[in-house]
UniProtKB/TrEMBL annotation:
Residues 11-225 form the PIN like domain. It holds the Pfam family PIN_8. Transmembrane segments: none annotated. Residues 321-373 form the RNA polymerase alpha subunit C-terminal domain. It comes from Sphaerochaeta globosa (strain ATCC BAA-1886 / DSM 22777 / Buddy) (Spirochaeta sp. (strain Buddy)). It comes from the Bacteria. This is RNA polymerase alpha subunit domain protein. GO terms for biological process: DNA-templated transcription. GO terms for molecular function: DNA binding; DNA-directed RNA polymerase activity.
């Protein structure tokens, strides 16, 4: 980020084609995707149109994969049948036909096709499920109104005719999808102005995209986009593909490892205040991705997991740093906590029944769920002493 003093004055927007990378067979794994973007979790935003595009593509991607494999198998089956008919007329080749093109082989091929389809579907669905908490937590929730979009469609047509970036290369598409790039551009401008309402000093906006079209990437397009963005927002604008982003921010990506090292060092030195600080930063990075005490091993190596466990178990007051989402609550229980302004596990553990009863919509089932999962968390981390106190329905 050009070595500026702090990245709180930086915004990062992610394009649809970046979100789809973990769904590709040869793309980044979800885990690698997390490692790359976790250090920037508080400054990343997903625009409404990007999210809609992502959902629409996710709905069709399994169907397309299955369709492609089915076609490939059908082509193979036709070729195998034709070859069998040919070689069976040649005496010396009959044995080959019986072994390599037998009905048993064709049946095995059918099973292979079915297993491949099931595997691809599972990989795709798991990737979507694992990314969903991140996308939902970083979704910019101020979409353009229908009236605003109608006006922008008219502007887009003018820009298409005059080849003004971005999006004019999509002019040949059918329907309103041809306007998506331009709408994303305008949503980015709107979000920047909303988030940076009081602009003081230097600000930078980064758009991470793997789009390769000239209406984004030609030197003339880049120059026009930078100029328009600065005029509309007062902020500088950078366009990066994933490879460029990884290279430009490799030091920030490494910061997670540094945080874990600092936590471990301060634990060993028994420097409680600093250890609590580094523990809080780690948890605040993990939780937006959907990490809970149940699935931590999906996000951390075994050695990192041990450091986190030790910190939560031994640091006094650590339970007050654990976000309530770390309990893996149902939506109902989570909403009850939001209404009651319960943000950490420690806050809940010290509440009385009277406190909870006076909270809006806090039913018995939600209370029992919170108590049960808080107890499970305390047992999992082997928390003892005052930090292990749990509110009781009998109070």
């Amino acid at each position: 980020m050009n070595n500026r003093d702090n990245h709180s004055k930086t915004l990062i927007f992610i394009d649809t084609n970046i979100l789809l990378i973990p769904l590709k067979v040869d793309g980044l794994s979800v885990e690698d995707f997390k490692r790359l973007f976790n250090p920037f979790i508080d400054i990343i935003y997903i625009l409404p149109t990007v999210y809609e595009e992502y959902k629409n593509i996710c709905r069709t991607i399994n169907h397309k994969n299955i369709h492609a494999i089915d076609h490939a198998f059908q082509d193979w089956a036709k070729a195998a049948t034709a070859l069998r008919a040919l070689v069976e007329t040649i005496p010396d080749w009959k044995q080959f036909s019986n072994k390599c093109l037998s009905p048993k082989v064709c049946k095995k091929a059918e099973e292979l096709k079915s297993n491949t389809n099931s595997r691809n579907k599972s990989i795709c669905e798991d990737s979507i499920s694992n990314l969903e908490p991140f996308i939902k937590s970083r979704l910019y929730r101020e979409p353009l109104s229908y009236t605003e979009k109608l006006k922008l469609y008219e502007q887009a047509e003018f820009r298409f005719r005059n080849q003004i970036p971005p999006g004019y290369k999509d002019n040949g598409k059918k329907g309103i999808s041809r306007y998506s790039d331009f709408i994303i551009w305008k949503e980015m401008i709107k979000a920047t102005n909303e988030i940076f309402k009081e602009k003081t000093g230097w600000h930078e906006v980064i758009f991470v995209t793997n789009d390769k079209k000239d209406d984004w990437l030609s030197e003339e397009s880049k120059e026009r986009l930078v100029s328009e963005f600065e005029e509309e927002t007062g902020c500088s604008f950078l366009l990066m593909n994933l490879k460029e982003f990884k290279e430009a921010h490799k030091n920030q990506v490494k910061s997670l490892t540094t945080l874990m090292s600092q936590l471990q060092v301060n634990l060993e030195k028994k420097n409680t205040s600093k250890a609590l600080y580094f523990l809080k930063r780690q948890l605040n990075i993990l939780v937006p991705w959907g990490a809970t005490f149940i699935n931590l091993s999906d996000y951390l190596s075994s050695s990192e997991l041990e450091v986190i466990k030790k910190a939560i178990q031994t640091l006094p007051g650590a339970i007050y740093l654990i976000p309530i989402q770390f309990l893996d609550l149902t939506n109902r229980a989570n909403n009850c906590c939001l209404n009651a302004e319960i943000t950490t596990v420690g806050m809940f553990s010290k509440m009385t029944l009277f406190d909870i009863a006076s909270s809006r919509n806090f039913g018995k089932k939600s209370l029992e769920e919170l108590q049960s999962k808080t107890k499970n968390l305390i047992d999992y981390f082997n928390i003892t002493g005052e930090d292990s106190i749990i509110a009781s329905t009998s109070e």
